Amino acid sequence: MNTSYFASKKIIKGDPRLVSIARKPPYWIKAFVPIYKPLCPSWDLVLNYKSGKITKEEYTIRYYNETLNNLDPATTYQELGEDAILLCYERVSDFCHRRIVADWFLKHLQIEVKEL
Hints:
The chain is an alpha/beta fold. Helix content is 34%, strand content 11%. The protein contains 4 helices and 4 strands. A 4-stranded parallel beta sheet has the order 2-3-1-4, with helices on one face. Helix 1 (43-50) runs antiparallel to helix 2. The radius of gyration is 13 Å and the shape is globular.
């Protein structure tokens, strides 16, 4: 499993391994990339972070409480598949929930999920 972002030059349009974990992927990619809704953060969480109402740390805590704590890591990993490439919007240098998911898999399954 890997992570990346929608605008990355490293992802190939039409690659069946691509999976969005963003609630609403860009129009130009949503036709061929499925959305794995269980890992999508709530709009409220996204908007609170983007508007500066909450910090990265608060976002992480809320994402765990609202999303990850309600999922079984092994089941989630199995449903996504070991070859999945999890996508969202933020570039590599930006704070992003896909890296929180990667850390969650490492913590619970000892599986390292690398950024492409």
